[in-house]
Amino acid sequence: MKDYGKASAEAVANTPSAYPPAEVAKRVIAQVPELHLLDTERVSHFPKQSASARNAQLHQTPMVQEELTQAFAARMKRKAEIHLDDHILANLT
Asked: Considering the entire predicted model, what is its pTM?
């Protein structure tokens, strides 16, 4: 989950600046899971089999969303101020 968050934040940062934020989110959604497909499939089975794995995933999800929120805010050059748009895009991604 942490690797997915890091890869997603890097993809946000590396998308050309000419792309509008919604298009950036679409590209990240399309690219990152494909790059981590085997890991994503493997990790998605753990929570089904183990309560502790499910709890760990639930604990990491907000951290990944915060990392993506920061990435979208940085992309829009909003360092001190995070907008609702940044949170929405992070949650969609």
From this structure: 0.68
